[in-house]
Amino acid sequence: MEQSKRRLHRRARESLTAFINAVAPEYIPARHHRLLIEKLEAVDRGEIKRLMVFMPPGSAKSTYANVLYAPWYMGRHPDRSIITASYGQELADKWGRRSRNIVAGDDFKSIFGFGLAGDSQAANRWATSKGSEYLAVGVGGPVTGNRADGGIIDDPVKGREEADSLTIRTKTREWYKADFYTRLKPGAWIILIMTRWHEDDLAGWLLEEEKAGGDKWDILSLPAEAEVNDPLGRQPGELLWPEWFTSEMFQIARRDTRNWAALYQQRPSPDTGDFFRAVWLHEYDELPPRDQMRVYGASDYAVTAEGGDWTVHIVIGVDPDDNMYVLDLWRQQTTADVWIEAFCDLVLQWKPMEWAEESGQINAAIGPFLERRQRQRKAYAFRRQFPSRHDKAVRAQAIRARMAMKGLWLPRSLPWASLFRGELLSFPAGKHDDQVDALSLIGQLLDDIRPGQIVHKDSVPMAGDHQVLVTPPWDKRGKPSWQRTQNKRA
Questions:
Q1: Which residues make beta-bridge pairs with 281?
Q2: 278-444: CATH, from 3.20.20.100, 3.40.640.10, 3.30.420.240, 2.40.30.200
Q3: Residues 60-82: pLDDT tens digits?
Q4: The pTM of the whole model exceeds 0.85
């Protein structure tokens, strides 16, 4: 037995799997763990510099890629240091304590010939007797004064509320760029371990940066339920780690569409939608007659241009059956003078009954200029302001309820329709929500929105190409007896 143990310890210096068998024999790597170990060993060899690991909650990705990998790497490279980070200091301390205890154990010392430094008691900051250092911080925490040869970010998002917060997502990105990234030595590696919460989470932002010439990432993404081209070679529908996860556990997880798509399938936006459902969206090729619809509009204004926010104008029409159609949509990142002209163009084209917009600084600053251009172009519309209260999901509840009952009709062929549909289905996990904000303002008008009316042939044309719709009285036989109205001017 002693000889077998010595042989295992010799292999453990070169093999992460053997190291795990030696220092933590209670962990028996499953199929997906073995694939993860291959990636981690490639990081150690310098073949992978940037690695993203996406797996469902409870798949032991943190245990293998953080707790077990960090000590093995420090043992193999006694002059190198690591910085790890998690969404909070408490979680970072948890991973740091487990890694420290491995380094302090007899098996680690037997394998590498050294162990924990005598003065290393803290869970978040410790060193080996060879001088390499380990620092664990919460995302957003200070790392100034420390340098590292490798960095591990493990679970940077606490939960859905933080994932949906643009403020927190922005702070996380800024911390990554200004604090974490700058503390890594030239040639250092990074491992990002997480489940996907949002299209614009840290992983999503880094992948967008990659497209713009940023760091190239190697991605290991393992959904709970296999899809086409599964990294493990599973057949579509085959479940991950059946020795641990039961089908009942996944059945419960599937009840929340968004959680299942994001946390378990690593797709932050479910194909069928979560907040807005795909079954609520219908397509049209031809609109009802214009004179049978009542038309309304809304705008989500933005002051910034060139990479900033988007301004969106949306126009909807309601037919006599109370079906709501998206008639037109304008969306650009541009300056106020451009979107004001676009607003006037839409008003002149569609002649809306009301137009919804948010009150506040943007309207106060742009309002006088917008009103002046409306008068100059004779683009008259009744603009109603609504205060920006609560979060975006709460503000969208009114139009969501309306769509759940009556649906929403989108044009089949117009290019903006697919982008609009995609944003609806990805909300609130999508990267952009400006079109949803504009549609939500339509929801603020719902108390005053009325169905269109059928224009009958017996309506009398009036001077100026206007016409009056006559509501027919009904005779005793139940048939309409039309009466022509007199021209008011006459």
A1: 408
A2: 3.30.420.240
A3: 999 999 999 999 999 999 999 99
A4: no
